[in-house]
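User: Hi! I'm working on a homework problem where we have to compare a predicted structure to a textbook description. Could you give me the structure for the chain below?
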Amino acid sequence: MAKHYKGGCQCGAVSFDVDLDLDQSITCNCSRCQPLGVVLAFAPRDSFVLHSGAENLTEYRFNKHEIANLFCKTCGIQSFSYGHMPDGTKIAAINVNALEGIDPRELSPTHVDGRSM
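Assistant: Happy to help. Predicted structure tokens:
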């Protein structure tokens, strides 16, 4: 069940609200996720509201260049990414580490073998 969360980057330049189901969180071993140590949860883009920091974000795309990995130019934290589902539905991939009051180590994320995809 989705709940409401606040999140952002380390320096506070980027802030957002999102409705997420943390029971559906994942870890991934792809060349980006594993070194970052992210735990991800996904939300429809209309459940994500960026309140501040759009002008302070920079983008990195790799592999198929379909996911916009966005991170703060000031502190370097990647708190979310934009992408889409196979059916075209726009989503936000949230770095659970960037959510206020959440300890991702208390979750039981599903592991995804992103290296093999």
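For your comparison, note the following. The chain is about 5% helix and 40% strand. Strands lie at 3-8, 15-20, 26-28, 40-44, 48-52, 57-60, 68-72, 80-84, 90-95, 110-112. Good luck with the assignment!
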